[in-house]
Amino acid sequence: MVTALARVEGRAVGVIANDCRHLGGAITSVGASKATGFIGLCDRFAIPLVALCDTPGIMVGAEAERTGVLGAASRLFSAQAALRSPLISLVLRRWTGIGGLAMMAGTMRRATAHRALMAWPSGEFAGMGIEGQVRLQHRARLEAVDDPSERQRLFRHLVDDEYATASAITKAESFFIDDVIDPAQTRRWIALAFA
To answer: Which of 41, 89, 118, 155 has its CA at 20 to 30 Å from residue 185's CA atom?
Structure first.
C-alpha cells in the first residue's frame, strides 16, 4: 500500500494506492494497517483523500490469516466508514471484490464523504478474477462439452462476455460509477471534484 501527501493544483490531498509491484496490489494486513493509520491522519487534519484502486482483493490463505489480515481489513473499512474528509475513488485497472470496496470507503454508493467514483478506461469491476469466476459459474456447462478445443472456445467466449460486462465504460453507462476519465486529465478531475 502506498500512502502519500501530495498537492493537486495547489490543494493538499492524501493518497492511498495499491502497490501492484507487491503481491499484485493485494491488500495485506500490513498494507491495511498502514492505510488505516494514514486515513485517520488525513481525517484529523481535514485533508481530502484520493484512493487509487488497482487490487485483486484482500490477501487470502493460511499465511495471510496468521498475519491478522481480516482484523486489519476490518479496521480499514471502519476508518473509511467514519471518514469525514472528502474522498475520491479512482479505479486505475482492477476493482476486485471486497478488496475493491476496501479502497472505496466500503461502498460503491455515495457515502457522505464520497465526492466521486471514477475509473480510467482500463478499469474493470468484478467480484473475483474473471477467469476464475467463469470457471466457477459455468463449471457444469463447460464440463458438458466433450471436445477440449470446443470447451476452450466456449470458455474464451464466456470470459470475453464477462470482461465486456466488467468494463469501466459499461459500469458508467449503468451509473455504477460517476465517470470514466482520460488518465491524462486525472489531476483536473480530482481538482474539480474537491472544488
So the answer is: 41
Give the torsion sign (CA, 118, 77, 126, 21).
positive
Q: Looking up cell 491488500, which residue turns up?
A: 27
Q: How far apart are CA 10 and CA 8, in angstroms?
A: 5
Residue 39: all three cell numbers together? 486515513
pTM for the model stands at: 0.83
- CATH number of 62's domain: 3.90.226.10
Return d(Cα 39, Cα 36) in angstroms, integer.
Answer: 5
Q: Identify whether residues 108 and 135 lie together within a single domain.
A: no
Query: Over 70: is that where the pLDDT of 105 sits?
Result: no
Looking at this protein, which amino acid is placed at residue 144? A
Same domain as 172, residue 87: yes
